[in-house]
Specification:
The protein is of the alpha+beta class and 116 residues long. 47% of the residues lie in helices and 16% in strands. The chain has four helices and three strands, in the order H-E-E-E-H-H-H. The protein has a three-stranded antiparallel sheet, with helices on one face. The radius of gyration is 19 Å and the shape is elongated.
Length: 116
């Protein structure tokens, strides 16, 4: 596969670089292609390394004749809605916390999920 084709295929995969309190450094992953696979103190360097790993992983899978997992998709592929089932006690607790914060349950949950 040509380098330009490899880069084009790799561009379809979401690449995440997040700070890990547990590891004390930045950690890179590209789900669903590859889990945590690189780490370091410099976020930009971890991202560059992650991009290289994704390209190598795609090349390896294609060389082996394995199919590539479907990329996560574009933002426009998501509606912004999903159903979450929780125990009634958790639902009640969240509703109480939202009420105490003066927010709707939806708004409170969104703010809480953003922090995750």
């Amino acid at each position: 596969m040509k380098k330009s084709e490899l880069k084009a295929n790799a561009a379809h995969y979401t690449k995440l670089v997040e700070w890990s309190d547990e590891d004390g450094c930045f950690v890179g992953s590209a789900p669903p292609l590859i889990g945590q696979c690189c780490h370091g103190d410099d976020e930009a360097k971890v991202y560059a390394e992650l991009c290289q790993i994704v390209e190598e992983w795609i090349e390896l899978l294609e060389t082996d004749g394995s199919s590539l997992p479907a990329p996560l998709g574009k933002v426009s592929d998501f509606s912004g809605k999903f159903v979450l089932r929780v125990e009634p006690a958790i639902h009640r607790r969240l509703a109480a916390k939202a009420l105490a914060a003066g927010e709707s349950l939806n708004s409170y949950c969104v703010k809480t999920l953003v922090k995750a």
